[in-house]
Amino acid sequence: MTGKSDYVEVNSSHNPFLFSGTKVADGYAQMLVTSVGMNTTWGEMMSTISRDTNEQTPLQARLNKLTSSIGKVGMAVAFLVLVVSLARYFTGITEDENGNREFIGSNIKAVDMVNSMVTIIAAAFTILAVAIPKGLLLAVTLILTYSMKRMMADQAMVRKLSACETMGSATTICTDKTGTLTLNQMKVTKYWLGKEPVEDSSSIATNVLKLIQQGVALNTTGSVYKASSGSSKFEFSGSPTEKAILSWAVLELDMDMEILKQNCTILHVEAFNSEKKRSGVSIRSKADNTIHVHWKGAAEMILAMCSRYYDASGSMKDMDDGERMIFEQIIQGMAASSLRCIAFAHTQIPGEQHEIGVGLQNLKEHSLTLIGLVGIKDPCRPGVRKAVEDCQCAGVNVKMITGDNVFTARAMATECGILRPDQDMTSEAVVEGEVFRNYTPEERLEKVDKIHVMARSSPFDKLLMVRCLKQKGHVVAVTGDGSNDAPALKEAHIGLSMGIHGTEVAKESSDIIILDDNFTSVATVLRWGRSVYDSIQKLVQLQLTMNVAALVINVVAAVSAREVPFTVLKLLWVNLILDKLCALTFATGQPTKDLMEEPPVRRTQSLITNIMWRNILGQALYQIAVVLTLQFSGESIFDVNEKVKDTLILNTSVLCQVFNQVNARKLEKKNVFEGMHKNKLFWGIIGITIILEVVVVEFLKKFADTERLSWKQWGACIGMAALSWPIGWVVKCLPVSDKPFLSYLNW
């Protein structure tokens, strides 16, 4: 239930309940079932996981706001055009093809009047259709889906599509330590004999070396397996701590576990206990028939049982209070270096004591001799410090939540770069889970931003921190691997479960599965999330440029001549076909380092920035000028009929979007061609778009209502469209204000 495999004693007085989903390790009893299904503790936890919060992602909120604003503008403009067109019609201003007034009072035929009304209303609805970006949501989904597929190669499996972009808005990442920041591969890195560290195992006294080998080989639940007699490779099994000690003893101290077991008889074993944090064994040596007791466990526990110690030369010495304090300082120093400190102790029991039962049932727990101290380190993963620094440079806070003690947690956080070396224990950057839990709600909200490390924490503390951060307006990403982490994974905006050591419950509760359990992959997901958001912004800029231009063009044309150049069919081609191809061109780009140098996008920040509005209006004004010139003077300029003129308008508009795709590659940078030659798929999609446009213009005359164009006319269309590149460069030289453009409209 806690995610740890610690035994919990069940008795009738203090802890009478058995929990569904746990296993009975020892003992017997009669059980009375009091709750089943969702009423069990497991069921209550699962109900918090399966509950749908119905909370909108940042992107959904922004897209809804955008489409709502555009819809209001479209309806307002369409209604205005309808009123103006009706007023012009009934006042007799509008004329037919022959130059005669269309409305002649009571003399007009009902059929003619109905036809005119239908034409006016159709023009208004076309304007409404132009204003609303119909293919935007589908194009956004294409970008998310394509990016999701490519993230698999970077060790991230996206289970929830919206998590791709939500990760780009993350402001805080709450991460576990073991297996995520570290390798989860324990290794002995320090050994102290007496009050001195041992650098070379060959310098250890023979008598002490023999005792250490005995204590390791016979007081363990792990095992050593050698594949074959000729092989030098060993396989170690057991808990991570046991494997680390066995590996050190075999590889560094040349311990032969099989020979030691053959030379001794085990009399009694006291298994490791999570409360006492130690394990012991009594053995009889077959060589001289002597009885020995070995203890191993948490250094501070074993030290309290010792009254003597072996020094560096192998001599036994008494331990007074001053020396005991020195050993305590050594233990604290190892913990401060993010080492797990394990001590070994030994005593020999006289034969007469053993004859009366001493050491057979109850192992001797006092007046022991300290053999040595070992420091076990779970090494920091390669690249983790760089990944943490990248996240911090990107404006994302990284918080470490661990079950380790404060000293170890602080040391590991400093090593990973989460804490600065100058941040001491009193700076509120490091806090214990119990302390955080006992804060008042107001204190938690006040201090949660200052906390970088939470030590000795429970899954409930992690959930509490996530809720506090969400209340403060943060977009929170959380890593977790145990079943008990599931509520926090579900509560966070982005739940990141571990693919190797994560439980199925954790994976089901998460949005993204980190396949290699590495924090570096979490930073990569953050970079991908920002890349997705950047691609969506580019798509929205391109889409709105076309929509704004088409809206203004149709409004001016409808009010002045009552003929709209963009019919519904042509709009479908430009909107639905081109938008999907444009979406793919933006989705194919690789995440760049520049994305990690900018602060995260705030949840309240508009999807369309002032920089984007500047680019949209600059390109839209140019396209409006070109198309309206062609609409009113195209026939005389090119000496063509009306049908060819309409084809020129369509062709120029499509080619403007194609050239503007290159402009949209960089929202702020003037050099839009940087890195473009590396993206072969981008060139392929541009080529497909141009081929489709040639097919529509040259071969689908009846379907698309177009006429074939000459080489000169094609050249003119390409020339007018290509001017959008220098215009884009000039537009990007214009400064913009920090106040959001839409805030002036108060929508």
Notes on the structure:
The chain has 747 residues and is an alpha/beta fold. Helices cover 48% and strands 14% of the residues. It is built from 26 helices and 19 strands. The strands form three sheets. Strands 3, 4, 7, 8, 9, 10, 11, 12 and 13 form a nine-stranded mixed β-sheet that branches. Strands 1-19-18-17-2-14-16-15 form an eight-stranded mixed β-sheet, sandwiched between helices. The longest helix has 42 residues, at 519-560. It is elongated and about 135 Å long. The relative contact order is 0.10. The mean pLDDT is 83.
Please state the average pLDDT score.
Answer: 83
Global shape: elongated
- Helical residue percent band: 40-55%
The residue ranges in which pLDDT falls below 50 over 5 or more consecutive positions are none
Number of strands: 19
Major β-sheet annotation: 9 strands, mixed
Radius of gyration: 37 Å
